[in-house]
Structure formats: structure tokens, C-alpha cells
Amino acid sequence: MSVNHGANLYDLSSKYGFSKDEFMDFSSNINPFGTSNKAKEYIINNINMVSMYPDPEYVDLKQAISTYCNCLSDNIVLGSGATELISSFIKTVNPQSTLLISPAYSEYEHELNKIDCEIVKYFSKEEDNFIIDVKKLVEAINKNNYDLAIICNPNNPTGFAFSRNEIEYILQNTNCYVMIDETYVEFTDTNIYSCTKLVDNYNKLFVIRGTSKFFSTPGIRLGYGLIGDKEVKEKINKNLDLWNINIIAASMGEIMFLDNQFISTTIDAMLRERDYLTNSLSSINDLTVYPSKGNFILCKISSEKFTAKELREKLLPKKIIIRDCDSFEGLSEYYFRVCILKPEENRLLIKNLKNLFR
User: Fold this and answer.
1) pTM of the model
2) Do 226 and 346 belong together in one domain?
């Protein structure tokens, strides 16, 4: 795993002599409470399913996603993780010019470069607390007639999110395709921020989600995209491998998307801990803390006592990993990001940060 995708626990374990399980990884943005027990128990009790082929149409899985996202099952495409769908959609639409909301996840630019697409970055600004004015964004899109706009919502790493009404405003006032990456939207109020309901009414909208972060299942590689444009959907499906979702991933998805108790419990716990971390980080005089709608918080070392990379190195012997944000274009060497972990781990992070900045 490259630096652009968080910590390599294998390398760090070897370097510091700790087991991978000992590290408190505040860089990964994965739900620390684990995945749905219902889904895990089903797999354990039905492990012989590995001797069967999955349903090539994934009818039950798509129906579960349809219920979860409140959209038509016909508008769902499945991928081996969200990254496969980012790549498939960009190749299919083949934009000549793209407006990329930045700073951003590196994979968007990586895939756009594969097709020699012109990339123009629209940077959110520190002086605005990384909040973007939707009307100014629409003006920028229309001024240069971009073929595609890419928005991570909530944005990684800033934590800013457009509301669903604001995304609808973009769709109503532009002609380009709009790709919304909702990897982190489930950690906030989906009734306000999720765009899945819009897919059935707007053909130019493509919403991408994965199960790695919220459902804590990066190992099963299950992602899904929602799109109303039948031609684009058919082209994406045509280029995907038959049975591209293995039977373990499909079966887990069928259960966990409908496990309402797991979903509500996770949201409650994550919001409570996000509030704790935001307030506690804000109490450290050397830090500027930015409001977040994701399961992570962007911070800046305002005192410049040391860089974020130096801070990361100071925390590693304490078995704590944070994400320095130097690899995100538009952020200086003093920015770092922490995700929300379990209560005891969050309190250890705060304790160690207060000691370092004292």
C-alpha cells in the first residue's frame, strides 16, 4: 500500500517491533467497531458456500443495496471495491476535461491521467475553512464546459460536504457528468448529505460507494455505483468480469446493508466520538481544527513547533499512527488527519498530543 493510501502496518511492525494489532491506526478511516455480526455469523455458519458460484446477476445483493440507498436496483453496478468503479466510469465516459475538487484522493487523478484527460483542480481554501460555495463552483464548471466534475462528499481529507440539495443544484445548472464519491457519507446524516435518491432522476449523476470504511470490510472488496444512464451502465457492466463479486462478499452485503441495528449503533457511536475528538483537539492551543462530516478530522499545527511528519514520527513509538497530509496537493507540511477510533484509543491520542504540545 502506497503512502497515498495510509499506513503500511507490515512495514511499521517490522521497523518498531510491534505486532500489527498493537498499533492504533488513526490513518485508515475504517470503522473501528468492526462489521455486522449478523453478516459474519452467516458466513461462519454457511462457509460451504465457497464451493458454489455466485449468482451472476446478483439479484439479492442489488435488492439489498436498492433498499439501503432508496434507488432502483436496475441502476446499480457492482465492483471489486470502489476504486474499480472509479476506473470503469472514467474509462467509459472518457472525459476530455475534468474539474477535480481538491485536495482529493489520489486515485481520481491517477485514473484521469491514464486516458490523458485535462485535469483542472478546484481547490477549497484554508481561509474559508475549506467550505466551497456551490454557486461559484457551478460558475467554474460552466465557464469552461467541463465534461466531468469529480466530488468526494464528504471530502477526504478536509471533511467538508455538500448537502443533497446543493448537489441537485449542480445537476440542474450544469451539463457535465458529476461523479460523487460517497465513501464517507454514511458517517454523517445521509438524509441531508447522501445523493443516492437523485440517481433515478438525473442521468448525468454517478454515485460511488464502498463497504471498506463504514462496514469495516476492506478485505472483501465490495463496491457499488449508482447511475441512471443506461448506456453508460451497460458499457461499465460489459467491461466488468463475470462473477466479479465473490460469494462471500455478495452474501455479506445482502445481510449487512439491511442490518439496521448495526447501522444505527455505528452512526451513534461514531458521531459521539467525532464530537469528543473535535472538542478535545480544539482545546490544544497549537492546533487549528476543521469541522468534519466524515469519520476523520483535519488539523493544522498552527504553532509550527514541528511538521506533521515529525509529529507522526513522535507518535509511532507510542503505537499511534496519524496521517500527515503532505501528499495532498494544496495542504502544507503542517496538516495532519486523524480518524475516529474506539473511545479508549481516542483518549490515548489526545493524552499523547497534549503531552507533545505542552
Assistant:
1) 0.93
2) no
